[in-house]
Amino acid sequence: QTAVANAATSQMSTSKGNVAPAQEVSKKGNSFFELPHIVLNVENPLGKTVTIDATPTDCVMDIRQFLLETPESCYFTCYQLQMAGDTKVINDFAELSEYPELKQEGKSNHLKMVPGFYDERSARTHVRRLREIIVKPPVHITQKMNPYVSESGSETTTKKGKKGAKSKGTSEKLHKVPSSDILEKLDLLEYPKTEKSQSVPEVVRNINFSAWNPPPGNRRLRGDLLYLEVTTLEENSLHITCSVTGFFLNSSTRDTFDPSPAVTDYKSHTLVELLKKASHTFSSRFSRLMSRKMTKHPYEVVMRPYPVYEWMAVKPKHAYDWNRAEDSLLTTYGMEGGRGVLRDWNEEYQCCHEMPRTNLVERILYNRTKYRVYLDFREAAVKGACAVIDGNIPPINPMDEERAWVYLYNKIFFSLTIDGRDSYKDIGGDRVSHCNASHDLLGITAFERADVKELYTLATLAVDYRGHRVLAQSIIPGIFHGDQASTHVYGSMDSTDSIKSSPDFHKLMLKAAKKLHIKEHRVVDAKGNTVTLASCVETKGIIGSDRRHYVLDLTRVFPRDANFPNYQKNPTSLLRPELVEDFCCRKAISTIVAKRNREAAAAAEAKKAGKSAEAKNEGKNTDQSAPPAADNQKDGTTDKDNSKSDTPQPDGKAETAQPESKAKGPKANDNAYISEMESIAFNPDAFCNVKSPDKKVEESDALEVAAASAFLLNNVIPKLVAQNFRLLQDSPLDGESLKRIMHKHGINMRYLGRM
Predict the structure, then answer these.
(1) Which long-range contacts (CB under 8 A, 24 or more apart) does 167-176 make?
(2) What is the pTM of this model?
(3) Whose CA is closest to 336, among 388, 412, 284?
(4) What pLDDT does residue 751 have?
């Protein structure tokens, strides 16, 4: 939960308000960190108890997942949770807060895992779970410090082997090791540091589905669900029947089918307990398997939500896994066949966008839900993209040329990032299409951070596989059913031949344009019509059949790079969002500082003029007017204290403006900064082959973009090289880290030669 909160905190700055987490916690009483903790003692069917610390916002399904990963209850899959002394079944999809009986803060709440009845789906899940445990069993984790970094610098413990020799650990303190010795000991063969994994004892030869499946009709009426064939380490072949009440041994062999119970008549609700009765070796080794202990850092225990590919990694061991073999043979390429229906990725993604985010708890739930949907979409899109490249999914337009094929599978639209329609034939072809996919992802990310509630983007993923780049997108409702279901209301569908701009859609685009520094500008289409846009002409606005306003093709959200002004040669040379934000920030600050300096200079000039006027008046006036002024000065009051003048007094401003700003706090400064930031905008169609009705405005827009490009060339790049690299503030170790550092400072990789 803390990790989720930290992940949510990193995205709070992009939402409206920019309220610091600490300030928001102090302002709102329903903070996530103020929720009471609930202690649950869950008793499994064997009488063992598992203690779980939870909060009222946790779902019962999270409790079941925790029990599934705990060695004491990992092989129980078909059960119902009930409160101790109560027959009421707890709903798996409800939150703990919906059960007042569990809100006993500081007291333990007792729950029971009551065995339930199997069906065919739950029986297959049970067998699959046992296979997973045999290959990768859960272990008891003991927390330890970071194995790679010694924070305290204390000596590490050394152990002696059988011959009395010391182990590979060192007894020297890290800060005492000379740098020359460290450089001599560096060896890439020792990276990454991997601990020797404990060998997993073999508990059974195999667990297969019997060839007698499926059960005949008369046996189905008796409750038989499926048949298993298990070979134990004693080389005994066990034929097992899974029924609605559990598992038992039957009298079948490979030659004869006899579903009646065997002579031994072992029965159990779980397959593990049945095998323990039927095989002594399985019983002893499985008990040893569940009692394994391992010392790991908490970060090493958390499973990665998606595979990570490193440039230097240990070759994984290809283990003997029945589940993996079955999945590869019966793959559905990311489609969840067990659910019975296809998931509507677009609806799930847009429902996340519509979730409230007014306080910290709602933001945490929003980020958690959206991250889960994203991971599921990522998994399905990657499998579907690989299937497209492997040729396992047919195209929806097989009559067109192969380069123009597109694919529709699992409610995801797949397209290759190649110029299949010859749209960029004269300016780069496939290279431009390949780069536009990356620009599209940057544009979608920018619009997501802009967080315009009525404006929706598509769930998009770019997959690089076997030399191809596949763009996977969720589907706009009604887009494949003609104009009657979905309507194109903004931007251009066919280059600049016809450009649309709906007033309602334009208002939504203006909200995003203020935050993304996009300038509202006018363009002329091929028919001579003048249209006002708050985006580039390629950006499209579509109203789907669900009446949501979708924006897509966000390839040119950011302005072009004026250092590469030739659009024919460099059509994809755009400024990075980090540079645009940095330039606008510096320009806004410099504008505010210059404005305040001008005000201070004007105040000083007025003060000087006021003093000269007072000197002239004192020479003309008689001595009778001097005592009252002296009295006022003695009393500590001025004319401004007694009456307010219509014209601002310089002395009063110098004396009262600073306390007023202190009393207001940083709000006035923040408002001035925000308004100044929103006033800085760039024309995304500058330096492009787009006609403008006003040449002067077009030239001024080009000068603004050129200023940002010059800032990149003359300020950002020299600073990165002279300060960050030479002073070792940033030290790139490989090409990936160099690219990450350059992109963080808003520098494109095409400037590597310049650096």
Answers:
(1) 174/150
(2) 0.73
(3) 412
(4) 95
